[in-house]
Each structure stands twice: as C-alpha cells, then as structure tokens.
Specification:
0% strand
C-alpha cells in the first residue's frame, strides 16, 4: 500500500515507468540512485530517496535491488530536514510493500523509533508513518518488536483522533497485531473499542473496513474488558448485528463469532442486549444461506438465545422452527417479530426447494437403465 501523495511530491509517475518491463534500464538507474544515496550532499540523498520511491512503487525486482539502501534510508529518518525524513519514509514504505525480507530488514535497521516519533507529527507525516507501521506489521517476524516498541497506545490515539486515512491504517495495524492473545490484552488496555464501534457504525457494512473492524472485535471480546466496552457503547451491539445482516460473507462470520463468543462466555449477561437489537432475522438467514460453519454457529447462537439453551443436542427443521417461534414470542417489538416470521417463512421455503432439488438429483443418479425403477424409488423414499 502506497500512502497518498502530498501536494509537495516532486515526482510524477507519468514521467517514467517503474515496472519490471524496464529491466534493460534498471541496472543503470539502480546504480546511479545508490551512488546519489551514498553521497555527502543532502540534496542528492533526498533525490535518491525519491527515485527509490518511484522505481520501487510497482516493481518487485527493484524492491530487491534497493534492499541494500535500507540502512541509509533509516538514517535519513533521523535527519533534521523534514523533506529528507519524509522522502526516506516514503521510500521505505514502497520498499516494504509485498516484500517480507524488506519489512524485516527495515525493523532490524532501527526504523521503529523514528517512525513512531512521526505519529505525533503533522497530518501528512502521521499518515505516512501509520501506513508504514501497517505495512511492517503484516510480517509476523516484526510483531514482537512492534508491540515491544510501545506503539499500541499511539495507534489507539490515532484511531480516535487521526485523519480518516490514518484512522483506517491504525485499525488495520491493530488488526495485524491482534493475532496473539497477549497482544490483544495490550490492545484492550489502550481502550480502542469505542473508536472501532464508531468506525463500524459509520462505514459501509459490506466494506473491507467493516470486515477488519468486526474481525478485531471478534478477537477482543474474548476478554471481559472488551465485552463490557462493546455493550456499554451506544449502538455497539447494534453495529455488530447490522454487519451480521448486510456485511460481506467474511464480515458476517466475524460478527456472528463476536456475538456467539459473548453468549458462550456469559449468556445471562449478553442474551438480552443481543436479542434487543433484532438479531433473529440475520441468524435465520445464515442458518440456510450461510457457509456450513456459519450455519452451525448461527444455530448454536439461536440455542443460547432461547429461554432454555440446551433442550436437544441437534436441531432438525421442525425443532428449528419451534426454536424460532419461541424466540419470536419473547420479543415485544412488532416490526422485528413480523420480520422474523417472514424470514422464517422464506427459510422454510428455501429449505423445501433445496430438499426438492436434492431429491431430483438423487433420482437422476439412481435410475440407470440396468436398475429397476422400484429400486430407485425405494432408495429415494428412504432418504
């Protein structure tokens, strides 16, 4: 991901290409750029950094060629010249994109300290620094060092008060760091849940942003502090339910996982807040149209939301209908009840159509010319 260009950028991508198709010119361009980078002239170093950014923007080959420039670019991050620091930061950002070795080399070269310092800078540098941290955090080998640097509270601050682009990148960086339970605890201590909920409430529910918000919340609600923060935030549970209803397939699975985790950990505490936000229609749809995993989780959550969560070990079509009717009877809101009943009717219709198609397919499979028709009929009727 290349950070958005500022108005002070001195190059224009249209002025020269940087694709791998430029291989006949690449050795000269690389060598000349590296020569400028190693010069004692500050303006030459800046020009070299800008060239590295340009040449490595879309060329994996050039990212490899310029990997040797990483220590010099990291040194430029500590320059008193704002132009020098920004040029170096953007060059490092492009070198890190889709290159695991460069990501690790940048962190090993000591780039984290100055990059974190830029998080307190003006908006442009803050955005560039946040984008760079996002890119570096995608490498598993970098996560311990990034977490140990103490950056999580700063990312949480940006998630709350940063520019729109910086907020998105901070969220993605926190998501990258949430893969380990110990890191999740540190993220929770930075109190990011209200900011995550705010992003989730305002973004399009089918967007990639909603997917990352719901994925991060699914990881965090394993801990009581995050569950408390989510239910205490006005519209927090509702935002999750809205993703469950209209998000992408992946987002809906994360939202379902969030609600299911909450109910499994403390059903008595979270059952009512979840029911109150109208979760039943979305769950009904997932029991029929979701993936096999989503269907199982949706049925499990439906069990937990009813008065007696474990009446039977398996939910057959008729017992699922009884379960839904039981839930509907507990809801006072007419609109929600009507929608749930409509969804139940549609669910049964879809289930019948799927069963009919299955029977037709079975009939086609088991009626070869050398078998008696009665044999086939017997097999179908026993299904």
């Amino acid at each position: 991901m290349d950070s958005p260009k500022s108005s002070s950028d001195s190059y224009n991508l249209a002025a020269g290409t940087s694709s791998d198709n430029d291989s006949p010119r690449t050795p000269f361009a690389v060598n000349e750029t590296l020569r400028l980078l190693h010069s004692d002239d500050p303006s030459s170093k800046i020009e070299a950094a800008k060239q590295i950014r340009r040449l490595s923007k879309t060329s994996q080959r050039n990212r490899r060629h310029f990997s040797s420039a990483i220590p010099q670019l990291v040194d430029m991050l500590r320059s008193d010249s704002a132009e020098s620091a920004q040029s170096a930061l953007l060059a490092l950002l492009n070198l890190a994109v889709k290159d695991e070795k460069n990501k690790i080399s940048i962190v090993d070269a000591g780039a984290l300290e100055p990059i974190i310092g830029f998080l307190h800078s003006e908006s442009d540098m803050q955005e560039h620094a946040t984008a760079t941290l996002l890119t570096l955090s995608a490498a598993s080998a970098n996560k311990p060092a990034i977490v140990a640097s103490g950056v999580i509270p700063f990312l949480a601050d940006i998630l709350r008060d940063g520019s729109p682009q910086a907020m998105v990148d901070a969220l993605m960086a926190l998501y990258n760091l949430s893969t380990h339970p110990d890191y999740c605890k540190l993220i929770i201590h930075a109190e990011p849940v209200p900011s995550i909920v705010n992003l989730l409430k305002t973004c399009k529910k089918s967007s990639k942003l909603a997917e990352k918000c719901s994925a991060l919340l699914e990881s965090l609600v394993e801990f009581e502090e995050a569950r408390t923060a989510l239910t205490s935030e006005e519209g927090g549970v509702l935002a999750i339910v809205e993703v469950l209803e209209s998000g992408s397939l992946q987002s809906r699975e994360h939202a379902l996982g969030t609600l299911l985790t909450m109910c499994q950990i403390d059903r008595c505490r979270y059952r009512e807040p979840i029911l109150r936000e109208g979760v039943i229609p979305g769950l009904l749809e997932l029991t029929v149209l979701g993936s096999q995993r989503s269907q199982f989780k949706a049925q499990t959550l439906l069990r937990l939301l009813r008065d007696s969560p474990y009446p039977r070990t398996d939910i057959q079509p008729e017992t699922l209908e009884n379960l839904v009717c039981n839930l509907i009877s507990q809801i006072d809101v007419d609109e929600q009840s009507g929608k749930a009943k409509q969804m139940l009717t549609e669910m049964v219709q879809i289930s019948m159509e799927q069963s009919l198609r299955h029977l037709q397919q079975r009939a086609m499979v088991c009626t070869p010319a050398d078998l008696p028709i009665s044999s086939c009929a017997s097999e179908v009727s026993s299904k």
